[in-house]
Amino acid sequence: MIAIQARDVDIGKLIAGAKKQGTGAIVVFDGIVRDDDIREMELEAYGEVAVPELEKIASEAKETYNLLSVDIIHRIGRLAIGENILVIVVGARHRQEAYEGSRFIIEAIKAGVPIWKKELRRDGDRWVPGEHRHGSGQKS
Amino acid sequence: MTVRIRFFARFRELLGTDIVVDAKEGTVLSGLVKDVAGKNKEGYDAIFDEKGIFREFVIIMQNGKRVETTAAAMTRVADGDEIAVFPPVAGG
Fold it and tell me: Residue A116: which of B56, B64, B90 has the nearest Cβ?
């Protein structure tokens, strides 16, 4: 399942679904709203581009790391401290592939998928700065 | 011709989103964004520097495909295009 959604994620259901024939390892990445002196986090996505980008990342990860399953769910909207922001569940025959595939996916999302975060802070709101090289068409 | 412009994140807060523009034939990307962003000084300054050049971190997409900011002055828009303008991504 690849999705961008406001509602929370049933991680247990994703893990159950990832247990396919041949699966020997499942790695779950759960990015959550950290208490960095904020009240809440607000997330925004360019969904029409972000979802196909996530699908592309999932396909590339599957092929490169021989993954048997990939689920990526990124949440949008207003989230409280401790809530899930991003859940990645990957299944593979062996742990090394699962760990490496999971790491590849999170780094690729951070580098290029059009999603933004705003911290609603006690001392004023702040957009989380993204990493970039420049806007001249090259991926950061 | 009709072109849709979508700003995201900080740019959206300053300039709005889902802006439909009636553009003349031959309009280029940079000119279109300048015209629309020019309606709000803070928004314009967030995207362009004092020489009117795209700031280095600005990302532009035309129908979901990235366009180099350096090529925006030579890239024409077409009827029905969707142009997206946004700051560096920060998901995950």
Answer: B90
Number of domains in chain B: 1
Check residue B67 and report its DSSP letter: E
Query: Which residue range forms the structural domain that includes residue B30?
Result: 2-86
* Residue A137: predicted pLDDT: 42
Question: What pLDDT, on the 0 to 100 scale, is given for residue A133?
Answer: 57
Closest Cα in chain A, distance from residue B73 (Å): 12
Taking every pair of C-alpha atoms in chain A, what is the biggest distance, in angstroms?
A: 51
- The reported pLDDT for the residue numbered A130 is 86
Interface membership of B70 toward A (CB under 8 Å): yes
Q: For chain A, which domains are there?
A: 2-127 (3.90.1170.40)
Span A71-80, pLDDT tens digits: 999 999 999 9
Contacts of residue B51, Cβ cutoff 8 Å, sequence gap at least 6: none
Those residues whose C-beta lies under 8 Å from the C-beta of residue B24, and which sit 6 or more positions away, are: B1
Beta-carbon separation of B8 and A46 below 8 A = yes
Q: Locate the chain B residue with the closest alpha carbon to A87.
A: B92
Answer whether residue B71 shows pLDDT above 50: yes
CB contact under 8 A, A117 and B90: yes
